[in-house]
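Appendix B, example 12.
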Amino acid sequence: MRRLLVALALALAAGLVVLLALPDRADRPAGMPVSPEVEQRYGVRFTMVGVTADHGLLDVRFIVLDPDHATDMLSDADRLPDVVVESRGKALPSPALMPMIHNPVAGRTYYVLYRNSGGVVMAGDTVTLAFDEARLRHVPVL
């Protein structure tokens, strides 16, 4: 009986470890793509893109996976991704109101606000987050 309880406890612990290791889908809307290349190269997982501030801003949210790689991107505005509206092929201007982050923390959610002058991006659109060498395509806009 004791062996059975120990085995059951070990199985539950192993199951918990597996669940914790899986990507958390609850923090991303349905259809949000994932890019292993972006995650590895830039140390972040994008979780949401949404129109806000009466359509004047685009809120791009992400979780830091690797603080060292994320610091490279977050401490220099020129290294943040371009947001390209897929149906129009038009990129948004540079990020607005973005304080540079020099010490990101793994597991913490951060955001970047982009100017959405003239309502270039609308809810229901899809965008591409374009880095120098990597792309996260078909991102739904909320």
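Confidence is low (pLDDT under 50) at residues 4-26. Residues 87 and 126 are 7 Å apart (CA to CA).
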